[in-house]
Design brief:
Length: about 375
């Protein structure tokens, strides 16, 4: 699902650039090298991940580009670990000459580890919990293909409408080392998006997106077992500049209709709570080279019954906040370096548990961005 959201959120970025009279979707080539270490204490246990996400963008013209992504990660929990590559994603993006339409195809290649042992399966479920925010949230799934179309229409120089739609094909795979569980086939997804960007003043911009997602039924060995409830997602963003400070506030609200557990003779309705993500970034633009920043991250999730890697689990309420700081430095024209630190604290109810556990820990990282 993260792949799809990236596409739809990218439409907001593309739309905002029409404020300069032209849709400039594709920029220069880049290689983005990232390293992250996130270590969280959950109750009395520690979940630790060292990850190396890499992104490469290659532009063939101002209208055509190819995007490559992969990441490896070492994740440890209670003396067990997974050390493997993640999924490889290949994206092809084309902007039509009118500069109002964009099409994109994203292919997810199952280069990561599936067929997990019982210990690895537990680790994979934990890192997939969104409130914990692990950079590599899954190692691999089946063969996935996403096709999307985005349309941007400038009403004026300061107001732009956008429409988007996407179809996400999700291939089957074996989640567990033992094939007794069967081959899991997650349901395909259809996504529609309506949004707008408005430039209120020279230093104030606002954007909004309404996204609606419909899920097909999940299967194991061609037997329908689960139906994810249709999801409404609201994205709001505010950017304002005061003096040498740049402020970005981003809020996401998600709510599903009830999920359904399917069997041959009955259908059971399962609750699905709301989710709220809040992000704030405060940048101090000292000069063209040096930008220190502060960041805040909040995740407030209600409980839900859902399928994780083909297994029904109950994820309880969670409230996790993060507060951090970082520094970006343009070393030379084509090279930017970044370091950051984020402290996290809160509580969560893990799958197969009924009591809240305290969460505390940190995430540190450094990135190198090459432009050419």
């Amino acid at each position: 699902m993260k792949i799809i959201l990236y596409i739809l959120l990218f439409s907001s970025l593309a739309l905002s650039q029409t404020l300069n009279d032209k849709l400039l979707y594709i920029t220069s080539n880049k290689i983005d090298l990232n390293s992250n270490l996130q270590s969280l204490k959950i109750g009395n246990d520690k979940l630790e991940q060292l990850s190396f996400p890499t992104n490469i963008l290659i532009t063939f013209s101002s209208h055509l580009s190819v995007d490559l992504w992969n990441g490896s990660a070492l994740t440890k929990f209670n003396g067990n670990k997974i050390n493997a590559l993640g999924e490889t994603r290949v994206g092809i993006k084309y902007i039509f000459p009118s500069e109002r339409f964009m099409v994109k195809a994203l292919i997810g290649l199952p280069t990561g580890k599936t067929k997990l042992s019982n210990e690895e399966f537990l680790i994979s479920q934990l890192i997939s919990l969104n409130p914990l925010g692990y950079p590599i949230s899954y190692y691999s799934q089946g063969f996935n293909v996403n096709l999307s179309l985005i349309y941007a229409y400038p009403i004026s120089k300061s107001f732009v409408l956008g429409l988007g739609c996407a179809y996400n094909y999700k291939g089957n795979y074996y989640p567990r080392e033992s094939t007794d569980m069967g081959k899991f086939d997650p349901g395909d997804e259809i996504i529609s998006d309506f949004g707008f960007d408005v430039k209120i003043s020279k230093n104030l911009k606002f954007n909004f997106d309404f996204v609606y997602t419909v899920f097909a039924k999940d299967k194991i060995d061609d037997i329908e077992i689960f139906k994810m409830g249709n999801k409404v997602s609201l994205y709001t963003g505010l950017n304002y500049i005061i003096g040498i400070t740049n402020n970005n506030i981003f809020v996401i609200y998600r709510k599903r209709s009830n999920n359904k557990l399917l069997s041959e003779n009955s259908t059971e309705e399962l609750s699905s709570g709301a989710q709220i993500d809040i992000n704030y970034l405060f940048e101090l633009m000292l000069n063209t080279r040096l930008t220190p920043y502060l960041l805040f991250d909040g995740k407030l999730y209600q409980s839900a019954d859902q399928l994780l890697n083909g297994e029904l689990v109950h994820t309880g309420e969670s409230t996790i906040f993060g507060l951090g700081l970082g520094l970006r430095y343009n070393i030379i024209d084509f090279l930017q370096a970044e370091i950051f630190y984020l402290f996290k604290t809160g509580d969560i109810i893990l799958p197969s548990s009924t009591e809240k556990m305290d969460v505390s820990g940190s995430k540190v990282g450094c990135n190198l961005l090459f432009r050419f």
